[in-house]
Amino acid sequence: MSKKTFLSVAAVLILAALAATPASAQLGGHNFRGDWGLTSGSQPPPGWWFGLFYVAYDTDTVRDRNGDRISFDPDRRGSVTAQGIAPLAWWISDKKILGGTYSLMINPSFPNTRLEAPVFGLDVDTGFDWGDLYLQPINLGWHRGRADYMAGLGVFIPTGRYEDGADDNVGLGMWSYEVFAGATWYLNPAKTWNLALSAYWETHSDKEDSDQQVGDLLTLEGGLGRSFAEGAINVGVAYYGQWKLTDDDFGVELPAGLDVGKHQVFGFGPEINLPILAKQKLIAILSARYLFEFGAESTTEGDTFFLGLTFPVGVDFGS
């Protein structure tokens, strides 16, 4: 239950500023990899869920289309530290559509990116600002014995500051549309072991004031977890993979023979979810996740830290 768009500002800056050759550059999409974890395919019980999430992504590594690290003079090597604060409001209703529980999610973002690229003479700090808005107008959830399922539609709305060619954008200047589906399977009758997998397919409009268009993206993410204390605590390993399915359109004709490639990257790392109780009543859920990237091609390779608090309001835990 974390943010999908608060690092959108970094998606173009990282590769455009750190890549040594145009053949390594890619246009970034909105879907932030690894933002769902151990129970990515499960919809919570009916009621309101309010969340506040923080993420930090750090990298000084860019991989080319063959997966080799692009070398820099150590004194001129660039880095990106991208942070984001993201509130969330998720309403799970009692209404059924196609047998699934209907819900609606809205997710604003406040990103901040620090970019240092001495090789290009860049030192940019965008500051925290209003970023692009994520909305799920349709989210359906099913609970079937030892499995949960979830599917729906999402849209990223370009509300963040954006100007074509600027190096301090806090939005991507485009609309993105997402179709997703996922499942969480409980591997034993006691439901103490859970395995989750969710898939997101994302397509994009042209960028504002340009003919550039980001290629379609496929993101898979989830985790394997073990629950304790009657399911109140869940710990395990989260993972993700992301692939660009179609070529970027850079809005210009590329030089003959230039193969930009399509990016891919994977990540995994520990996750823990803990309840915060007061007089035996659940007040909030504390979530923490640290992900290490590997297997990157035509993109950056770094580490991501998530920290989140989710507050249930009027939730019927008996559903």
Describe the structure.
With 319 residues, the chain is mainly β. The chain has one domain (8-313): Porin, CATH 2.40.160.40. It is built from one helix and 16 strands. The protein has one helix at residues 8-18, and strands at residues 47-59, 62-63, 79-97, 100-107, 110-117, 122-125, 133-144, 147-157, 176-186, 193-204, 217-228, 233-244, 264-278, 281-297, 299-300, 303-313. Strands 1-3-4-7-8-9-10-11-12-13-14-16 form a twelve-stranded antiparallel β-barrel. The chain has a two-stranded antiparallel ribbon with strand order 2-15. The radius of gyration is 20 Å and the shape is globular. It starts with 7 loop residues before the first helix and ends in a 6-residue tail after the last strand. Residues 1-25 and 117-122 have low confidence and may be disordered.
CATH architecture: Beta Barrel
Unreliable sequence segments: 1-25, 117-122
Mean pLDDT: 84
Question: Structural class, judged by helices and strands?
Answer: mainly beta
CATH class: Mainly Beta
**What is the number of strand segments?**
16
Through-space gap between termini: 19 Å
Using the coordinates shown, work out and report the CATH topology: Porin
Secondary structure: helix percent: under 10%
CATH superfamily: monomeric porin ompg
Shape: globular
Compute the number of structural domains: 1
Q: How would the blueprint of this fold be written?
A:
Blueprint: H1 8-18, E1 47-59, E2 62-63, E3 79-97, E4 100-107, E5 110-117, E6 122-125, E7 133-144, E8 147-157, E9 176-186, E10 193-204, E11 217-228, E12 233-244, E13 264-278, E14 281-297, E15 299-300, E16 303-313
Antiparallel strand pairs: 1-3, 1-16, 2-15, 3-4, 3-5, 4-7, 5-6, 7-8, 8-9, 9-10, 10-11, 11-12, 12-13, 13-14, 14-16
